Amino acid sequence: MLSPEEFKRLTIQQRFNRLQKDGDFVASRFYQSFNVHLFTLYGFYVEIWQTISLGDVAYIEVVGNDATLREYTKDIDLNKDLGIGR
């Protein structure tokens, strides 16, 4: 188990390996020329940024604010998705 600070000190390959082994996928979104994938890892959130055109991993970063997490939920409408009237 690692803290967010310890995770940040790993190389990108080590981060990727750790996410493959212990991370849980949560959601994906698009941002500019990237597919961004959100994972939980040891009680914190991590994003993997992949280029859309090549699929290469450009960044793997700890999510440090709630605004980033809201990007994954902004289009969710549970009432509509579940067919519940308002």
Describe this structure in words.
Helix content is 29%, strand content 35%. The protein has 86 residues and is an alpha+beta fold. The protein has one domain (4-81). Strands 1-2-3-4 form a four-stranded antiparallel sheet.
Structural class: alpha+beta
Q: What number of structural domains do the residues give?
A: 1
What does the radius of gyration come to? Answer: 15 Å
Low-confidence stretches: none
Helix content estimate? 25-40%
Tell me about the largest β-sheet.
Answer: 4 strands, antiparallel
Principal-axes geometry comes out as: globular
Compute the number of helices: 4
Beta strand %: 25-35%
How many extended strands?
A: 4
Query: How would you spell out the order of helices and strands?
Result: HHEEEEHH
Taking the alpha carbons of the first and last residues, their distance comes to: 44 Å
Mean pLDDT: 91
Condensed summary:
With 86 residues, the chain is of the alpha+beta class. Helices cover 29% and strands 35% of the residues.
Which secondary structure elements does this structure contain, and how are they paired or packed?
Elements: H1 4-8, H2 12-22, E1 24-31, E2 34-41, E3 44-51, E4 57-62, H3 66-70, H4 78-81
Antiparallel strand pairs: 1-2, 2-3, 3-4
